[in-house]
Amino acid sequence: MKAKDVRNWLGIYFLLVTGVFGAYLLLFRESPLLPISKAEAVDSFEILIPVLLAQVTMIFRWFSSEERPEDSVLSLPRWVVTAPPIMVVVILLISLLTLIFGNLGNGRRWAPSPDAFKGIVTFCVSILNASTVFIVSMYFRRVEPRNPQSVSEPDRRTTNGVSG
Amino acid sequence: MTVLAMARKVVITILGLAVAAGGFAIWQAGSQDRGAAFEIVLKHKNSTNEVNPAHNVHPGPAEQIFLGYTDCRYIYECFCQHAFSYHLRKVPRSRGSLITNQLRDLNQGPMFGCTKQERSLFDLSDEFRCRTVRRIQLKATDPAFEELSVPSEAGSDLTVWIESAVRVDPKGLPLEEAEPEAMPIFIEGNGKEYEVIEEYKPRDIHCMMRVTFSGKVIECKKSFTCLHKAQNAYSASLLRQFSQEPLGASEVHDEPVPPGEIWLRREFQPSHVLGAPYFELTTYVVKIFFADEDDGRRSTEPEAGLRYLYVNTAQSFTRSVGISGTYTEPTPEQMAAYKSATKAALARALEAACRSVDGRMVDLVCRL
To answer: How far apart are the first and last CA of chain A?
Structure first.
């Protein structure tokens, strides 16, 4: 995958996931589409959304900066970039579907409890923290504007004896 | 002296005595602060020059006063959450006299703030309640001050202005003396004056068991044996109505149920009253007993001399969002929805039972 493709893919992914899941948790809480109480929906929102928003912020800060490094092909397998985010979406969708269908009609005993749903959301956030967050921080690292002070920083540290 | 003239004298004498007795009664009633059940004030007359009972009959305060929120049992936040508390704030003399003047006007005027409370089984008859302001004398050690602390500088003899609720008929005529629960407004004592400040702070507690309906449902004029027949019909009808939607509860058989009671339960099933995604865990306790209005006797079995069948329905209700969620106490709105659904089921059960025993519904009571 080219760096440009990775950035576009991750950018669109995080924007969509943040918007869709954030709105879903806020709009459909305590309804048949999200049968958990308002307090539990807010808990899930507070677990999931800050992490996603941090990624969105990094991505948009990068796209909005004046200086962006040229595209280059990094030696990363495709699955390293795409597998964790896709897995997270699949897990969240499956848990939502079991929550919805498990509570239809007279309800099913296998329907996950709100606590279990919060556990799944926490698990998804952990997966992203352990994988994709590193990819995002690598591809969307902020490019510092060129100025004499920042260039001379390593030299000053060397002269102070910090580095060696 | 002719017979006619003599009769005229007798009538005049009787009228004079009646007026004097009335005047004395009014003076007596006015001089007492407490204990007078009704006080007739003749100065308020309507345009047709007739005494309007709604304007002129003044119910007196109850014998024993409990200071607190008026009509507390009708308000969920008060009855269940103990949301209202009171404390005193000292007021300067000028403001105090202004307040007492206004209270004195309210004390002499007609009742005010009349409201309609839904109470009946069928929602056809309502209970009407009005408010009065009265001045009473209380000792600082009176149990009425249990939840209102009065500063010691106010002395031991206190004058308390209270607002009470009175049950009235649809025309505003008081049906009984004022309720003992009275809201304190203003307190005077030892030359000091205090206004009562009400604080609204609902606590996070709810009613575990709430009475949905309590009252007379069946009257047997013929013989007490007909009550037995009516009880059987009513019990069967209750079970049928409670098992149908929206309540959908089934009779409890796995626990020992006291005599004269029917227990019904709906466990971890969808709530038809609240709709998806709510599930409920509800227990209804229906107590059926026989009583006589005159001597107050009660029994769970029909006996000679008992002519009425009473029902008292209480329910505990918890609900969850989703079947596997936490079952917690409902909000006041959700509780109100259940209350009205239960009342409707009770009404349908009574109507069906009354039909089945060839009774007729009169004033919301099945008469046999």
So the answer is: 39
Is some CB atom of chain A closer than 8 A to the CB atom of B47?
Answer: no
Q: What is the mean pLDDT of chain A?
A: 84
Please provide residue A141's backbone torsions phi and psi, each rounded to the nearest 5 degrees: -65, 140
Spans of all domains in chain A: 3-143
pLDDT in tens, B313-345: 888 888 999 998 888 888 878 888 888 899 889
Residue B336 and residue B264 share a domain: yes
Kindly report the average pLDDT of chain B as a whole number: 78
Provide the residue range defining the domain that includes B99.
34-200
What are φ and ψ of residue A149, in 5° steps? -65, -45
C-alpha R_g of chain A: 21
Residues of A in contact with B270 (CB under 8 A): 105-107
Asked if A116 is an interface residue toward chain B (Cβ–Cβ < 8 A), one would say yes
User: Domain count of chain B?
Assistant: 2
Q: Residue B323 phi/psi, 5° resolution? A: -70, -30
H or E segment to which residue A3 belongs: helix A3-27
Overall average pLDDT of the A51-74 stretch: 82
Q: Is the pLDDT of residue B37 over 50?
A: no
Residues B126/B116, Cβ–Cβ less than 8 Å = yes
Q: How many CB atoms lie within 10 A of CB B40?
A: 14
For the stretch B250-277, pLDDT in tens is: 998 887 888 888 999 998 899 999 998 9
Q: Do A113 and B325 touch (CB under 8 A)?
A: yes
Nearest CA-CA partner of B241 in B115, B90, B361, B342 = B342
Q: Any chain B CB within 8 A of the CB of A108?
A: yes
Cβ(B285)–Cβ(A40) below 8 Å = no
Name every chain A residue with its beta carbon within 8 A of the beta carbon of B279: 103, 107
On whether residue B258 sits in a domain, the answer given is yes
B210 or B149: whose pLDDT is higher? B149
Predicted-assembly ipTM surpassing the 0.90 threshold:
no
Q: Which residue of B268, B279, B321 is in closest CB contact with A36? A: B321
- A84 touching B, CB under 8 A? no
How far apart CA B99 and CA B162 sit, in angstroms, is 13
SS3 B10: helix
Amino acid A86: pLDDT: 95
Whether B120 has a pLDDT exceeding 70, the answer reads no
Which helix (H) or strand (E) is B76 found in, with range?
Answer: helix B76-79
- Would the pTM count as exceeding 0.90? no
DSSP state of A73: B
Residues of B in contact with A111 (CB under 8 A): 322-324
Answer yes or no: is B20 within a domain.
Answer: no
Q: Examine the fold and report which residue of B178, B200, B222 is the final residue of a domain before the chain moves on.
A: B200
